[in-house]
User: What shape does this take?
Amino acid sequence: MRGGVKVAILYGIASGALLVLSLPKPDLYPLAWIALVPLLFAVAKGNNLLSIAFSSYAAGVAFFGGTFYWITETMMIFGGLSIPLAVGVGALFTVVYALYFVLFALGLHLAVRRFGTRGLFFAAPLWVTVELLRAHLFSGFPWMLSGYALVPYAGVLQIVTWTGIYGLSFVATAVNSLIAYGAIHRSKAWLGAGALVIAILWFLPIPGETPSGDTLDVRLVQTNIPLDQPWKKPASDDLLNELGALSTREGTKTRLVVWPETPAPFYLNEDKDFRSRMQQIARKLGAYFLVGYIDAIGEGPTNSAALLNPQGQVVSRYDKMHLVPFGEYVPFKRLLFFAESLTRQVGDFMPGTEYTLSPLDQHRIATAICYESIFPDLVRQFVKRGSELIVLITNDGWFGESSAPFQHLRMGVVRSVENRRYMVRVANTGISAIIDPYGRIAGRTPIGVRMVLDGAVRYRSDRTFYTEYGDVFAYANALAAAAIAVAAVYDRRRFRGRERKHVRRTH
Assistant: This one.
């Protein structure tokens, strides 16, 4: 392998590593402003497609391997897979998803060939386009898009009410382009411009806060049920007794109690004892009670949530619509017949079909379950249909104390801001939190502690541009990226045509 290719690979690894470090955890988020600079430099200075492909693929492997290392750990410790198979699944995920970086780099290469180093300024729409593809291809996996690194900057975070998360990815990539362009040309003016933009965005305050509506007192119950909890009496009765006492303990007055996504065989309809216990909690507190449980559609199980009124009656039910691949169902099951030990560990849940809104006094709330919170368009559909509060229940116990619970919380923060809604986030093992419509966390719990978190949220009925129109910004970037690609390819063909004519004339 030639020296130039080796250097390009090192540039790619550097970008991938910096992107990993900018996200939770370790959450060294200022690195987001320079994370892509090495890769942009490699693309702009690359002499051939081979070095660009190797560099970008190395960046993708470093990013997906470093950000999603917990996939292997989860499947090995909690999924029952052998070490070789768990490592194989994690490696397969990494090597496939790394191709998204190659797609971005090749697109940027076309822009640079057409416009010179000024083509670097097309990096932002190209990057957004690739992230949009990742969010939709093969059922979608928009977990930890690069823009999530900018969430701690409260002022710039507010643009997601117009652009969604893709606006933050655009801003971060655009600043990287400024710095890379300045570094390539050794221009103090361009580097200074990049530094000035960072300074402005760093200290930008939250603009124009508007008041919210009626207050709702809430109690978040972090059940902290171990995934290996025995479900035989008397152990199961002792646990439910403890959780019932915890949920109804004296403290601040509450109007809504929330339990997390069920990590256990809780059957509200089929198990009379469990149903009776849940009804007692609602009646004792005189409060609404939202609980995760297992239900069914036809003969298939569903991952569901029910809202009980203060009399203990079920007033609504929501069935999770976007299931977790390789967790709640196996995609391409026929193609994966050889991975019997993998498919045997996975449930075969049925997806729901309705964006359920639950009545709570004179208001309406929505429940999203776990994995669904990473999909901006899914969450906004609840709000567009009239939800005044978002409740997210999840079981992050599968992630242990890895980066994943922190990453998952970060995505919930953006869903709140995108739609200007309070979010009540209740996780089995943590992190449970109350998030306000501007992305501030009003209260949160540590991981791995059985406890309650009391607090207050407010209803809102206004709609943001993002709630109303969705990913218009992202699709506009995709159109721009397509135009860049078409222009670059057309110019290249026209140039080749001129060369052929010149050769004919000279002969």
Q: What stands out?
A: The mean pLDDT is 91.
